[in-house]
């Protein structure tokens, strides 16, 4: 199949997935798109929003549409690492003969919902690190591979922070995207009430499966990024560092630490996925801007002045989009 035909087929599949998810999930188009981009890119996503906005329903519906296994882990202060990864149990095979057998934990699924991840202790949070980065779990010196595709979708409540353990920057940086789940508008809320207070939710159909997702990932990686677009990504990330000569004014004033190289990687890969989701095999500057906030909002650390003045990170990201030029000054 020619590249053009593969891209057209990719776009059709993504459109069908969006339609099926839309049968259950009302609105939240940006959240749905970010989730699909992160899935195709092979990354993980951090969803931030108050309870009751349909985050669990979205992930469960995505699993049904893609025919992927789904598991939900409710993070609590007493949750232990073995509750996530699994543990070795003594099994009696026959009378008088006992052996250790590894019982897989809920992390052994294609889509893993880590609900309210900041409620668990750092030790338990770190149990996800190897799984997220290496796609493996180590128990008693033995490594077990996780099913593919594998994606962690973590949620956290931005309001109720008492008794929580904020995720360390090193772990937050491992999330491909951080997406804010907004409260629905009135017309959307009315539609949610109509759908959820009736007899049952509308059924969804399977569009593709795990093998198709892996093929889509390969196609996304094949997309070439022109040098000007790559340089634009680098300028964006460098401009988030307050001690850089390319830093914009709001960065120097309000940012303590800028994005890591993972932010640049996320922008490039997301731009590739955005391009083929729109039916193109070439990446433009708009493809980068489309995912800029989701890729960088959790990678910028505000300083004391920003927190004292109540400056949200979204303002700095808006300034980056406005002030960082697409072309380098040498070429302009």
Structure report:
With 332 residues, this protein is of the alpha/beta class. The model has no long low-confidence stretch (mean pLDDT 84). The protein folds into 2 domains: 1-221, P-loop containing nucleotide triphosphate hydrolases (Rossmann fold), CATH 3.40.50.300; 223-325, Orthogonal Bundle (Helicase, Ruva Protein, domain 3), CATH 1.10.8. The strands form 4 sheets. A 5-stranded parallel beta sheet has the order 2-5-8-1-9. A two-stranded antiparallel sheet has the order 3-4. α2 crosses α12 (261-277) and α10 crosses α12. It has helices at 3-22, 29-41, 55-66, 81-85, 122-125, 127-134, 169-172, 186-196, 210-222, 227-238, 249-254, 261-277, 285-290, 292-296, 304-309, 313-323, and strands at 45-48, 70-74, 86-94, 97-104, 111-115, 136-139, 142-145, 151-156, 177-180, 255-257, 301-302. The chain is built from 16 helices and 11 strands. β3 (86-94) and β4 (97-104) form a beta hairpin. The radius of gyration is 21 Å and the shape is globular.
Radius of gyration, taken over Cα atoms and rounded to an integer in Å? 21 Å
- Predict the CATH topology of the largest domain: Rossmann fold
Which CATH-level-2 architecture of the largest domain? 3-Layer(aba) Sandwich
In the predicted model, the low-confidence regions spanning at least 5 consecutive residues are none
**Order of strands across the widest beta sheet?**
2-5-8-1-9
């Amino acid at each position: 199949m020619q590249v053009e035909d593969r891209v057209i087929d990719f776009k059709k599949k993504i459109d069908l997935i969006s339609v099926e998810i839309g049968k259950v999930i009302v609105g939240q188009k940006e959240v749905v798109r970010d989730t699909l981009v992160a899935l195709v890119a092979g990354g993980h996503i951090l969803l931030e929003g108050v309870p009751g906005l349909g985050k669990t329903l979205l992930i469960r519906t995505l699993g049904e549409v893609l025919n992927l296994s789904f598991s939900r882990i409710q993070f609590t202060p007493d949750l232990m690492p073995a509750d996530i990864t699994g543990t070795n149990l003594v099994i009696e095979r026959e009378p008088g003969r006992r052996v250790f057998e590894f019982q897989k934990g809920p992390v052994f699924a294609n889509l893993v919902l880590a609900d309210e991840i900041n409620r668990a202790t750092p030790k338990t949070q770190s149990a996800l690190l190897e799984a997220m980065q290496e796609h493996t779990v180590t128990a008693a010196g033995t490594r077990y591979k996780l099913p593919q595709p594998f994606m962690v979708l973590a949620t956290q409540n931005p309001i109720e922070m008492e008794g929580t353990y904020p995720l360390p920057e090193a772990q937050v940086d491992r999330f491909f995207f951080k997406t804010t789940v907004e409260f629905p508008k009135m017309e959307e809320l009315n539609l949610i009430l109509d759908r959820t207070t009736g007899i049952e939710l509308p059924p969804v159909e399977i569009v593709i499966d795990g093998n198709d997702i892996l093929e889509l990932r390969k196609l996304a990686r094949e997309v070439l990024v022109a040098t000007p677009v790559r340089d634009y990504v680098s300028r964006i990330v460098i401009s988030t560092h307050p001690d850089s000569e390319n830093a914009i004014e709001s960065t120097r004033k309000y940012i303590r630490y800028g994005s890591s190289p993972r932010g640049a990687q996320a922008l490039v890969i997301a731009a590739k996925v955005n391009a083929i989701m729109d039916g193109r095999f070439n990446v433009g500057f708009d493809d980068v801007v489309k995912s800029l906030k989701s890729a960088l909002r959790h990678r910028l650390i505000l300083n004391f002045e920003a927190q004292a003045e109540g400056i949200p990170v979204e303002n700095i990201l808006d300034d980056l989009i406005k002030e960082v030029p697409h072309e380098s000054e040498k070429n302009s």
